[in-house]
Amino acid sequence: MNLILLGPPGAGKGTQAQYLIEKYNIPQISTGDMLRAAVKEGTPMGVKAKECMDAGNLVPDEVVIGIVRERLQKDDCSQGFILDGFPRTVPQADALKETLQQLNKEIDAVLALTVDTDALVARLAGRRTCSVCGAGYHVLYDPPQEAGVCTKCGAALIQRDDDKEETVRNRMEVYAQQTLPLVEYYRKENILHEIDGMDSIETVRSNIEVVLGNNP
Questions:
Q1: What is the pLDDT of residues 75-87, one digit of tens each?
Q2: Strand, coil or helix: what is 177?
Q3: The pTM is what?
């Protein structure tokens, strides 16, 4: 089962990916993880990536694609994989398609978790984290017993910078500009499945199972 997981920050990709990992016994592969692993292992593409990063430059697409190719040939991908955070652009999708053809692989399904921007902002902006023990809360859905105070240890709760409304909206805008074109790309490939990410975790999971045909 070879899958691509699309969705903006906070859409629940991580939660659903964990379920898919356990159900199909396949690895979740993110761009960041691949880059770090390739650099650590000193693979040919990892060496090139490190040169770019050490120089303060973005890692070019051809190097990222090379790292993806290296990663997909590892033994743990023999039964499938979940690509998370890659591809991010249409040129990357084109390069991925060509790479998979060379490896005699293909994407079985692209799962796109769709969300309502305002609802997602409310979901993320309401999150609070304990400054001491790290316990998580939500001001609406899972509030502490006392506002602003951790129920577990009594320390102050904080709002992470990346959960602030302005930051969340900026991240959503970047996602829309860079990644939403992939929705149309994979729709034309007839492998796109849009799933309402605002439903409950259980409902989203059930809808994914329907899409994938409850394959063992």
A1: 999 999 999 888 9
A2: helix
A3: 0.80
